[in-house]
Structure formats: structure tokens, C-alpha cells
Design a protein that fits this description.
Elements lengths: L2 H11 L2 H8 L10 H25 L8 H23 L6
Length: about 100
Amino acid sequence: MNIKKQFTEGLITNNPVLVQRIGMCSTMAITTTLFNGIGMGLSVLIILTCCNVAISALRKAIPNDIRLALFVVVLEGFVTHVDLLTQDLLPDLNT
């Protein structure tokens, strides 16, 4: 096997630590209070759950060519909705 290919596969493609860190980057932001940390974690959980449910429901009807773009649009929609809800219902979370 080519050394360069083996190096890049081991470091980037098949590196579970890197994959887990990238997957958790949205929850790794620095917070100053426990309330903000819990609020941020719950927001991420709600957003990802709603996105996965919506995309799973629409998966068969969406062509493969636009599936990723639609996922991004759905994700941004849920992020916006959760952000507006937290601003309205929990204003202390946004300070």
C-alpha cells in the first residue's frame, strides 16, 4: 500500500477520534454557566432529532442529487426556529 495513502486514511478517513470531535464541534463551545451549557446541549439535541426525523420522512421522495443541499436547508431552518424560540422563551440563555 502507498505510504501517503495509508497515512491519510489512518489520520483523516479512519480516525475515530477526529470523527467524534467533528461530530461534537457544535456542543464544544465555551460557556460560562451550567444553565447555558445545558440549554446549548438541549438545543443541539432538539435540532438534530428534528432534522433526522424530517430527512428520514422525506428520504424516498428526494433525488440523490439534491439530498445534501436539502439537508442543509432543513438544518438551518430548525436552527433558526430553535434560536427564535430560545430568544422568546429563555432570554437569559442568549446573554
